[in-house]
Amino acid sequence: MLNIDRVLKDDRLIRSMTGMHLKAFNALLPAFAEALAETPLPRRSKTPRQRASGAGRKPRLEPVEHKLFYILVYFKCYPTFDLAGIMFDLNRSQANRWMHRLQPVLEAALGKKMALPKRKLRSMDEFIQAFPGVKRIILDGTERPIQRASDYDNQKKDYSGKKKRHTRSHLAGSDGDGRILLFSIAHDGKDHDKGILNREGWVEHIPDDVLIQGDTGFEGLQREYVNVETPHKKPKGGELTKEQKEENRALAKERVVVEHSFSGLKRYRIASDVYRNRIKDFDDRTMFTAAGLWNFYLIAA
Length: 301
Known about the structure:
Helix content is 46%, strand content 11%. By secondary structure, it is α/β, with parallel strands linked by helices.
Protein backbone atom coordinates (compact mmCIF):
# COMPACT_ATOMS: atom_id res chain seq x y z
CA MET A 1 0.00 0.00 0.00
CA LEU A 2 1.16 3.51 -0.81
CA ASN A 3 2.47 5.55 2.14
CA ILE A 4 0.43 8.70 1.53
CA ASP A 5 1.72 10.62 4.54
CA ARG A 6 5.28 10.18 3.32
CA VAL A 7 4.40 11.57 -0.11
CA LEU A 8 2.59 14.56 1.41
CA LYS A 9 5.84 15.62 3.12
CA ASP A 10 8.04 15.35 0.03
CA ASP A 11 7.70 18.11 -2.57
CA ARG A 12 9.37 16.07 -5.32
CA LEU A 13 7.15 13.02 -4.76
CA ILE A 14 3.89 14.95 -4.57
CA ARG A 15 4.80 16.89 -7.71
CA SER A 16 5.50 13.70 -9.67
CA MET A 17 2.32 11.96 -8.48
CA THR A 18 -0.22 14.79 -8.52
CA GLY A 19 1.19 17.43 -10.89
CA MET A 20 1.18 19.94 -8.02
CA HIS A 21 3.92 21.07 -5.69
CA LEU A 22 3.32 21.02 -1.95
CA LYS A 23 2.44 24.73 -1.81
CA ALA A 24 -0.31 24.34 -4.43
CA PHE A 25 -1.66 21.18 -2.76
CA ASN A 26 -1.95 22.91 0.62
CA ALA A 27 -3.54 25.97 -1.01
CA LEU A 28 -6.23 23.82 -2.65
CA LEU A 29 -6.92 21.69 0.44
CA PRO A 30 -9.22 24.14 2.35
CA ALA A 31 -11.45 24.71 -0.69
CA PHE A 32 -11.57 20.95 -1.32
CA ALA A 33 -12.53 20.30 2.33
CA GLU A 34 -15.29 22.93 2.09
CA ALA A 35 -16.63 21.46 -1.15
CA LEU A 36 -16.52 17.95 0.32
CA ALA A 37 -18.50 19.07 3.38
CA GLU A 38 -21.17 20.53 1.08
CA THR A 39 -21.48 17.27 -0.88
CA PRO A 40 -24.12 14.86 0.48
CA LEU A 41 -22.92 11.35 1.21
CA PRO A 42 -24.14 8.76 -1.33
CA ARG A 43 -26.65 6.16 -0.15
CA ARG A 44 -26.16 2.80 -1.83
CA SER A 45 -29.07 1.20 0.01
CA LYS A 46 -32.64 2.30 0.77
CA THR A 47 -32.86 0.13 3.89
CA PRO A 48 -32.29 1.72 7.33
CA ARG A 49 -28.74 1.63 8.67
CA GLN A 50 -28.13 -1.57 10.66
CA ARG A 51 -25.01 -0.52 12.52
CA ALA A 52 -23.79 2.54 14.36
CA SER A 53 -21.66 5.14 12.65
CA GLY A 54 -17.99 4.27 12.94
CA ALA A 55 -18.60 0.53 13.08
CA GLY A 56 -17.19 -1.89 10.53
CA ARG A 57 -14.02 -1.68 8.47
CA LYS A 58 -12.13 1.59 8.86
CA PRO A 59 -12.04 3.72 5.72
CA ARG A 60 -8.82 3.83 3.72
CA LEU A 61 -9.26 7.46 2.66
CA GLU A 62 -10.31 8.99 5.96
CA PRO A 63 -8.44 12.35 6.14
CA VAL A 64 -9.47 15.02 3.67
CA GLU A 65 -5.89 15.36 2.40
CA HIS A 66 -5.88 11.65 1.50
CA LYS A 67 -9.07 12.10 -0.54
CA LEU A 68 -7.58 15.08 -2.38
CA PHE A 69 -4.37 13.14 -2.97
CA TYR A 70 -6.33 10.19 -4.38
CA ILE A 71 -8.28 12.17 -6.97
CA LEU A 72 -5.19 14.16 -8.00
CA VAL A 73 -3.20 10.93 -8.48
CA TYR A 74 -6.04 9.59 -10.62
CA PHE A 75 -5.97 12.67 -12.84
CA LYS A 76 -2.19 12.83 -13.08
CA CYS A 77 -1.41 9.12 -13.56
CA TYR A 78 -4.78 7.81 -14.86
CA PRO A 79 -4.32 4.30 -13.42
CA THR A 80 -6.77 1.48 -14.02
CA PHE A 81 -9.07 0.87 -11.07
CA ASP A 82 -7.25 -2.41 -10.39
CA LEU A 83 -3.97 -0.52 -10.03
CA ALA A 84 -5.56 2.32 -8.04
CA GLY A 85 -7.04 -0.30 -5.71
CA ILE A 86 -3.65 -1.87 -5.08
CA MET A 87 -2.02 1.51 -4.49
CA PHE A 88 -4.66 2.71 -2.00
CA ASP A 89 -5.70 -0.67 -0.50
CA LEU A 90 -9.16 -0.61 -2.07
CA ASN A 91 -10.98 -3.06 -4.28
CA ARG A 92 -11.58 -1.84 -7.81
CA SER A 93 -15.26 -1.08 -7.26
CA GLN A 94 -14.35 1.14 -4.29
CA ALA A 95 -11.65 2.83 -6.37
CA ASN A 96 -14.28 3.52 -9.04
CA ARG A 97 -16.84 4.90 -6.56
CA TRP A 98 -14.32 7.16 -4.86
CA MET A 99 -13.16 8.60 -8.15
CA HIS A 100 -16.70 9.42 -9.31
CA ARG A 101 -17.58 10.89 -5.92
CA LEU A 102 -14.45 13.05 -5.65
CA GLN A 103 -14.24 14.39 -9.23
CA PRO A 104 -17.19 16.81 -8.80
CA VAL A 105 -15.78 17.82 -5.39
CA LEU A 106 -12.44 18.65 -6.99
CA GLU A 107 -14.21 20.61 -9.74
CA ALA A 108 -16.22 22.54 -7.13
CA ALA A 109 -13.03 23.32 -5.18
CA LEU A 110 -11.37 24.69 -8.32
CA GLY A 111 -14.48 26.79 -8.90
CA LYS A 112 -14.13 28.27 -5.41
CA LYS A 113 -10.53 29.17 -6.29
CA MET A 114 -11.70 30.88 -9.53
CA ALA A 115 -9.50 28.52 -11.57
CA LEU A 116 -12.08 26.97 -13.89
CA PRO A 117 -12.38 28.31 -17.46
CA LYS A 118 -15.66 29.72 -18.70
CA ARG A 119 -17.69 27.54 -21.00
CA LYS A 120 -20.28 30.01 -22.28
CA LEU A 121 -20.25 33.72 -23.06
CA ARG A 122 -23.60 35.49 -23.19
CA SER A 123 -22.56 39.14 -23.48
CA MET A 124 -19.58 41.47 -23.71
CA ASP A 125 -20.27 42.67 -20.18
CA GLU A 126 -19.92 39.08 -18.96
CA PHE A 127 -16.53 38.80 -20.68
CA ILE A 128 -15.30 42.09 -19.19
CA GLN A 129 -16.49 41.10 -15.72
CA ALA A 130 -14.91 37.64 -15.93
CA PHE A 131 -11.61 38.71 -17.49
CA PRO A 132 -10.80 42.31 -16.50
CA GLY A 133 -7.59 43.55 -18.06
CA VAL A 134 -7.34 40.79 -20.67
CA LYS A 135 -6.32 42.30 -24.01
CA ARG A 136 -5.62 39.14 -26.03
CA ILE A 137 -7.30 35.77 -26.57
CA ILE A 138 -5.48 33.00 -28.44
CA LEU A 139 -7.83 30.40 -29.91
CA ASP A 140 -6.90 26.84 -30.79
CA GLY A 141 -8.32 23.34 -30.71
CA THR A 142 -7.04 20.26 -28.92
CA GLU A 143 -8.02 16.60 -29.31
CA ARG A 144 -7.87 13.69 -26.90
CA PRO A 145 -7.83 10.08 -28.15
CA ILE A 146 -10.74 7.77 -27.42
CA GLN A 147 -11.49 4.11 -28.10
CA ARG A 148 -13.04 3.27 -31.45
CA ALA A 149 -16.82 2.95 -31.18
CA SER A 150 -18.28 -0.37 -32.29
CA ASP A 151 -21.13 1.40 -34.10
CA TYR A 152 -20.06 2.39 -37.64
CA ASP A 153 -21.81 5.78 -37.70
CA ASN A 154 -20.51 6.75 -34.27
CA GLN A 155 -16.93 5.80 -35.06
CA LYS A 156 -17.14 7.76 -38.30
CA LYS A 157 -18.12 10.91 -36.37
CA ASP A 158 -15.26 10.36 -33.94
CA TYR A 159 -12.58 9.91 -36.60
CA SER A 160 -10.19 12.85 -36.93
CA GLY A 161 -8.53 13.14 -40.33
CA LYS A 162 -5.96 15.45 -38.78
CA LYS A 163 -4.87 12.99 -36.07
CA LYS A 164 -5.68 9.84 -38.08
CA ARG A 165 -7.41 8.32 -35.06
CA HIS A 166 -10.66 8.52 -33.10
CA THR A 167 -10.80 11.58 -30.87
CA ARG A 168 -12.96 14.11 -29.07
CA SER A 169 -12.26 17.79 -29.75
CA HIS A 170 -12.25 20.86 -27.52
CA LEU A 171 -11.75 24.50 -28.41
CA ALA A 172 -9.86 26.69 -25.95
CA GLY A 173 -9.00 30.35 -25.54
CA SER A 174 -5.82 31.24 -23.68
CA ASP A 175 -4.44 34.58 -22.50
CA GLY A 176 -0.86 35.72 -22.93
CA ASP A 177 0.19 34.12 -19.61
CA GLY A 178 -0.82 30.57 -20.50
CA ARG A 179 -4.07 30.48 -18.48
CA ILE A 180 -7.03 28.78 -20.18
CA LEU A 181 -9.87 31.31 -20.05
CA LEU A 182 -12.41 29.63 -22.35
CA PHE A 183 -12.98 25.90 -22.80
CA SER A 184 -15.70 24.39 -24.96
CA ILE A 185 -17.74 21.26 -24.38
CA ALA A 186 -16.50 18.11 -26.13
CA HIS A 187 -17.25 17.81 -29.85
CA ASP A 188 -16.87 15.00 -32.35
CA GLY A 189 -13.35 14.34 -33.60
CA LYS A 190 -14.34 15.17 -37.18
CA ASP A 191 -15.48 18.69 -36.23
CA HIS A 192 -13.40 21.60 -37.51
CA ASP A 193 -12.09 24.33 -35.18
CA LYS A 194 -14.01 27.12 -36.90
CA GLY A 195 -17.18 25.04 -36.93
CA ILE A 196 -16.87 24.51 -33.18
CA LEU A 197 -16.24 28.22 -32.69
CA ASN A 198 -19.36 29.10 -34.67
CA ARG A 199 -21.43 26.79 -32.46
CA GLU A 200 -19.92 28.13 -29.24
CA GLY A 201 -20.48 31.75 -30.34
CA TRP A 202 -17.61 33.22 -28.31
CA VAL A 203 -16.27 35.82 -30.74
CA GLU A 204 -19.42 37.94 -30.93
CA HIS A 205 -19.23 38.45 -27.14
CA ILE A 206 -15.55 39.49 -27.06
CA PRO A 207 -15.03 43.29 -27.13
CA ASP A 208 -13.44 44.81 -30.24
CA ASP A 209 -10.45 46.09 -28.25
CA VAL A 210 -9.49 42.50 -27.29
CA LEU A 211 -7.26 40.96 -29.96
CA ILE A 212 -8.26 37.45 -31.05
CA GLN A 213 -5.48 35.36 -32.59
CA GLY A 214 -6.01 32.06 -34.39
CA ASP A 215 -4.26 29.72 -36.80
CA THR A 216 -5.24 28.84 -40.37
CA GLY A 217 -8.07 26.69 -38.98
CA PHE A 218 -9.96 29.95 -38.42
CA GLU A 219 -9.41 31.26 -41.97
CA GLY A 220 -12.19 33.67 -42.92
CA LEU A 221 -12.89 34.79 -39.35
CA GLN A 222 -10.74 37.90 -39.89
CA ARG A 223 -13.19 39.02 -42.59
CA GLU A 224 -16.11 38.79 -40.17
CA TYR A 225 -14.62 40.60 -37.16
CA VAL A 226 -12.24 43.55 -36.97
CA ASN A 227 -10.26 42.25 -33.96
CA VAL A 228 -9.26 38.86 -35.42
CA GLU A 229 -5.72 38.07 -36.56
CA THR A 230 -4.88 34.89 -38.50
CA PRO A 231 -1.84 33.86 -40.58
CA HIS A 232 -1.60 34.66 -44.26
CA LYS A 233 -2.60 31.60 -46.27
CA LYS A 234 -0.53 30.72 -49.30
CA PRO A 235 -2.64 31.23 -52.42
CA LYS A 236 -3.24 28.21 -54.64
CA GLY A 237 -0.42 28.04 -57.15
CA GLY A 238 1.25 31.12 -55.67
CA GLU A 239 3.69 32.10 -52.92
CA LEU A 240 3.61 34.35 -49.88
CA THR A 241 5.64 37.53 -49.97
CA LYS A 242 8.63 38.01 -47.70
CA GLU A 243 6.64 40.45 -45.56
CA GLN A 244 3.75 37.97 -45.21
CA LYS A 245 6.12 35.22 -44.13
CA GLU A 246 7.66 37.51 -41.51
CA GLU A 247 4.20 38.43 -40.23
CA ASN A 248 3.29 34.73 -39.99
CA ARG A 249 6.46 34.00 -38.00
CA ALA A 250 5.76 36.89 -35.63
CA LEU A 251 2.18 35.66 -35.10
CA ALA A 252 3.37 32.09 -34.51
CA LYS A 253 5.74 33.34 -31.77
CA GLU A 254 2.83 35.05 -30.02
CA ARG A 255 0.42 32.13 -30.48
CA VAL A 256 2.80 29.52 -29.06
CA VAL A 257 1.45 30.38 -25.60
CA VAL A 258 -1.71 28.38 -26.28
CA GLU A 259 0.43 25.32 -27.07
CA HIS A 260 2.07 25.75 -23.66
CA SER A 261 -1.43 25.81 -22.13
CA PHE A 262 -2.31 22.52 -23.85
CA SER A 263 0.99 21.05 -22.72
CA GLY A 264 0.14 21.98 -19.13
CA LEU A 265 -3.37 20.56 -19.49
CA LYS A 266 -2.00 17.28 -20.82
CA ARG A 267 0.47 16.84 -17.99
CA TYR A 268 -2.58 15.13 -16.53
CA ARG A 269 -2.67 11.79 -18.29
CA ILE A 270 -6.44 11.60 -18.02
CA ALA A 271 -6.40 14.36 -20.67
CA SER A 272 -3.80 12.77 -22.97
CA ASP A 273 -4.11 8.96 -22.72
CA VAL A 274 -6.78 7.02 -24.60
CA TYR A 275 -10.02 7.62 -22.68
CA ARG A 276 -11.25 4.44 -20.95
CA ASN A 277 -14.20 5.44 -18.75
CA ARG A 278 -17.73 4.56 -19.79
CA ILE A 279 -20.05 7.18 -18.28
CA LYS A 280 -21.60 9.47 -20.90
CA ASP A 281 -19.92 12.89 -21.19
CA PHE A 282 -17.56 12.13 -18.30
CA ASP A 283 -14.66 12.71 -20.72
CA ASP A 284 -15.85 16.30 -21.04
CA ARG A 285 -15.95 16.78 -17.26
CA THR A 286 -12.44 15.37 -16.80
CA MET A 287 -10.98 17.63 -19.50
CA PHE A 288 -12.70 20.65 -17.95
CA THR A 289 -11.38 19.75 -14.48
CA ALA A 290 -7.87 19.17 -15.86
CA ALA A 291 -7.97 22.65 -17.43
CA GLY A 292 -8.91 24.03 -14.01
CA LEU A 293 -6.01 22.15 -12.40
CA TRP A 294 -3.58 23.72 -14.86
CA ASN A 295 -4.98 27.20 -14.19
CA PHE A 296 -4.75 26.66 -10.44
CA TYR A 297 -1.16 25.51 -10.78
CA LEU A 298 -0.33 28.80 -12.51
CA ILE A 299 -2.17 30.77 -9.81
CA ALA A 300 -0.36 28.97 -6.98
CA ALA A 301 3.08 28.89 -8.62
